[in-house]
Design the sequence.
């Protein structure tokens, strides 16, 4: 057929268009992509960011498109709200980028307003034991356990009971998450969990429970001690060339004074 030579390119173009992603909404801590985005003017690059930036934008691919450029970009929101990604793009040649059209996205939260972690389950009544047979069984089991303790455990059990149990600290809980994020081995759930733990802990520690999420995150980033690990995690996740060297022991030092068990009480948002 005379037009058969155009069939394969058309099919390939259709397949590529079907794979293009246009994700304008994502929850806090989750990455989203917008592919094949044509923007006017000279070539763009991500604008400079600091610890107060609520949105991080990365350009994954840049291709000429006539007198414009076509981009594949990835974005990531740190606080719920509506944002214009064009604010975080700049011209490579330093010229103004005011002619860019709005690139509106929405960052949503899966938790109710003001909460940084799921609520604890409501307490419920335990099933009640009743009946003479049940009482006999319980008494028999307790008698056997006591006899075994006297015969086989004895002095060894009493010495072991006197030794204080070493409880894991919050630093022990954070270490595998930090190492996974630093080496690029963490999945999206692990990255979001690490940021959630850090924000929840310092929000309680710095008395930011009544502040809204945006203000709390900004305050934590700016704090010398609280922001050290959070800023490092954001650099690993969002900078095109994240820092290669870091001191895990120093980053986790503020979290060694809190046990992992006590953390749930310290960081719970009321």
Sequence:
């Amino acid at each position: 057929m005379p037009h058969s030579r155009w069939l394969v390119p058309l099919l390939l173009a259709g397949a590529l268009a079907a794979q293009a992603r246009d994700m304008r909404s994502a929850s806090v801590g989750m990455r989203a992509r917008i592919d094949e985005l044509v923007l006017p003017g000279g070539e763009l690059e991500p604008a400079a960011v600091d610890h107060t930036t609520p949105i991080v934008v990365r350009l994954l691919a840049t291709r000429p498109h006539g007198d414009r450029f076509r981009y594949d970009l990835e974005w990531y929101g740190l606080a719920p709200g509506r944002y214009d990604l064009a604010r975080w793009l700049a011209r490579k040649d330093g010229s103004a980028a005011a002619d860019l059209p709005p690139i509106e996205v929405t960052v949503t939260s899966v938790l109710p307003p003001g909460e940084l972690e799921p609520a604890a389950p409501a307490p419920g009544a335990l099933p009640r034991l009743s009946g003479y047979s049940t009482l006999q069984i319980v008494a028999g089991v307790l008698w056997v356990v006591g006899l075994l303790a006297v015969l086989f455990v004895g002095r060894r059990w009493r010495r072991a009971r006197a030794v204080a149990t070493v409880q894991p600290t919050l630093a022990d809980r954070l270490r595998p998450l930090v190492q996974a994020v630093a080496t690029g081995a963490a999945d999206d759930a692990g990255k979001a969990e690490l940021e959630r733990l850090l924000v929840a802990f310092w929000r309680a520690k710095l008395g930011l429970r009544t502040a809204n999420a945006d203000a709390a995150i900004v305050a934590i980033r700016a704090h010398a001690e609280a922001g050290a690990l959070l800023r490092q995690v954001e650099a690993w996740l969002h900078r095109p060339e994240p820092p290669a060297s870091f001191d895990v022991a120093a980053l986790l030092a503020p979290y060694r004074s809190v046990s992992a068990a006590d953390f749930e009480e310290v960081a719970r948002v009321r």
Summary: The two ends are 72 Å apart (CA to CA). The chain has a mean pLDDT of 78. The chain has two domains: 16-108, 170-267. Residues 14 and 164 are 67 Å apart (CA to CA).
